[in-house]
Specification:
The structure is a single chain. Strands 1-6-5-4-2-3 form a six-stranded mixed beta sheet, sandwiched between helices. The chain starts with 7 loop residues before the first helix and ends with a helix. It is globular, with a radius of gyration of 16 Å. It is α/β, with parallel strands linked by helices. It contains ten helices and six strands; from the N terminus they run αααβαβαβααβαβαβα.
């Protein structure tokens, strides 16, 4: 297995981050995710905004280590995941056709297409579309983990609350902020953690 060697700028960024916020009391996976999200956003508030459990993150980490598929809600999140190819049907013409035929959003249709491809046990990564979270919950996709951090003033907080209430293994955040960079950073943290601790 190849050991990841961070760029010196990344190393320095983590030094600065750790001088400004002490996340050392957090369990290892939660800390890895929080630090990677803060590193990606330069937003220290994520130290208290992220909501998960170490057990949920461990389920996702183990699934990734075993080769579970990663599914994203849109191309920007997929592009930000640097250590694994992601399944993303957001731009698939079939998603547009299904959305029109079923009277659902394209994001919801993309979830249905993705689930038909990957089945249960995937890691789902949502950084943009609250509708994707609602569809994941409604479809009972049996995920290994759902990283649900869409940003926005309409529907984002409600979707994240629904995810937390669903009982699914999840990582979300409480506030209206989030986005593709946050979603990709969270899954990258788990993938990098996998490489660092075989």
């Amino acid at each position: 297995m190849t050991v990841r060697r961070p760029h010196p700028i990344e190393v320095r960024s983590y030094e600065v981050l750790r001088s400004r916020v002490d996340l050392s009391p957090m369990p290892p996976l939660w800390r890895a995710v929080a630090e990677r999200v803060i590193h990606a956003t330069a937003d220290l508030e994520y130290a208290v905004d992220l909501v998960t459990t170490e057990e949920h993150l461990a389920e996702g980490w183990a699934a990734l280590r075993a080769g579970a598929p990663v599914v994203t809600d849109e191309g920007m999140a997929a592009a930000g995941i640097s250590a694994r190819e992601a399944v993303c049907h957001a731009a698939d013409p079939a998603a547009a056709r299904m959305a029109r035929a079923a009277g659902i959003t394209r994001s919801a249709a993309a979830v249905r297409l993705s689930y038909s491809e990957v089945g249960p046990g995937a890691v789902w990564v949502v950084g943009s579309a609250p509708e994707a979270i609602f569809e994941i919950v409604a479809r009972r996709v049996s995920p290994a983990l759902v990283i649900g951090v869409p940003a926005g003033f309409v529907g984002a907080c409600e979707a994240k609350q629904a995810l937390r209430a669903s009982g699914l293994p999840q990582l979300s955040n409480v506030s209206e902020k989030g986005g593709s960079a946050v979603a990709a950073a969270a899954v990258n943290a788990l993938l990098y953690h996998e490489a660092a601790r075989p």
